[in-house]
Amino acid sequence: MNIPLYCMIFFSKVIENALATLRLIIVANGKKWMGAILQFMVALVWVFVTGVVVTGIKEDPLKVVFFALGSFVGSYVGSIIEERLALGNNMITAIVDPRNANQIITNLKKEHHGVTILEGSGTTQNKIILMSMVPRKKRKEITDIITDIEPNAFISAEKVASIQTEKHNQ
Fold this sequence. Notes:
Elements: H1 3-28, H2 32-54, H3 62-85, E1 89-96, H4 98-110, E2 116-121, E3 126-135, H5 139-149, E4 154-160
Antiparallel strand pairs: 1-3, 1-4, 2-3
């Protein structure tokens, strides 16, 4: 049993899969060059570790188990890293009681968050709809401001990307 080899296979796969998971999320957020660089690193690690595993696989099939375990753990680690980086933007939409809306709006603006205000009609009463596009890292901050004033507010978050068009003078 070659424990150092199994550890090397396992940790190489953890690194590879963590980088691959992160690469997918980075590319989905429009960072193509960073995604390409990460893919280069993923390919290097993959070729190296796969070569080690397939060499003598019949004599030491346990290498495959550590390869698979490293893939499993690496995918999970990549997701945790991405969650901590919190890339991208969210559109926070909150449906609140009109009696609380002004205080929520004031507190959001005091913390330098832009907010768009719409009037809506609910089943039994009118509502105020608040919308704010924020970096994903600030999502909890926004929801805390809202729920501190209205704990039962309906709040949703969607991943968004800003699309701007330029008008060219011809």
